[in-house]
From TrEMBL:
Domain of life, per lineage: Bacteria
Membrane-spanning residues: none
InterPro entries: MazG-like_dom
Gene3D superfamilies reported in the protein's UniProt record: MazG-like (1.10.287.1080)
Protein name stated in the entry: MazG nucleotide pyrophosphohydrolase domain-containing protein
NTP pyrophosphohydrolase MazG-like domain location: 25-77
PANTHER family xref list: NUCLEOTIDE PYROPHOSPHOHYDROLASE, REGULATORY PROTEIN FOR BETA-LACTAMASE
Amino acid sequence: MDLATLQDVIERTYGERDRERGVPSTVAWLAEEVGELAQAVRKGTQAQREHEFADVLAWVASLANQMDVDLTAAVQRYATGCPRCAAIPCACS
């Protein structure tokens, strides 16, 4: 699934409820999911890590939807590599 499709699915599935919850609560949920991802990275199984990565991406998509941010456009800053030096790998010191 690409980012545009993810944003669309998240919007259709959770958009109304997430907007009612609001941006501050969405940020809190995202932060909680990042914490769960950190724990899964440290101590979890591959399946647990995949689950938590998916949850983090879903909350990022929800937040982006609420903030009217197109994630596909946003990630273009990395299209040529490092956003500062444009090198792959990064050549910044």
